[in-house]
Amino acid sequence: MKLWRNPPTVSRDNVELMEDLLGAGQAGDMDRLVELTHEDCVVNEPESIPYGGDYTGETAFPDIFADIGATWDDFAFEGPDIWDAGEKVFVRWEVEAESGDETVEVTLLEM
User: Fold this and answer.
1) 3-state helix, strand and coil shares in percent for the chain, rounded to the nearest 5
2) CA distances (Å), 104 to each of 27, 70, 73, 107, in order?
């Protein structure tokens, strides 16, 4: 799977790239998300959530953020903790989301 549009140089590791991606998401910098994301990127969100399904291409992450914003009145996360596991990167974060009188608190682990 290709995730990054501009592949990293040897001096940048996957954890730094994920930090860049998540930092852009937290800052709402959709242009930077598009810049970092490869056109062949596929992000799979579980079908059990309101914005489940596949998000593809350069706009995968901006599209996810838009759907999260349309689902929740407030969505915040702490962390993330990022681990390099060779060919994969694992990310753990604490999420709190509110919609109407419903609040969800969950720990997410993604790769």
Assistant:
1) 30, 40, 30
2) 22, 16, 12, 10
Residue 69 · residue 50 · CB < 8 Å: no
Residue pair 110/49 in contact (Cβ under 8 Å)? The answer is no
| Cα(109)–Cα(80) distance, integer angstroms | 10
Q: pLDDT for 26-77, tens place per residue?
A: 888 999 999 999 899 999 999 999 999 999 999 999 999 899 989 999 988 8
How far is the C-alpha of 35 from the C-alpha of 3, rounded, in Å? 11
Q: pTM to 2 decimals? A: 0.77
- Helix, strand counts (H, E) of the chain: 3, 5
As given in the structure block, the two tokens for residue 93 are: 């974060």
Q: How many of the other CB atoms lie within 10 Å of CB of 2?
A: 11
Helix or strand holding residue 74 (H, E): strand 74-85
What is the C-alpha separation between 66 and 74, in angstroms, rounded?
12
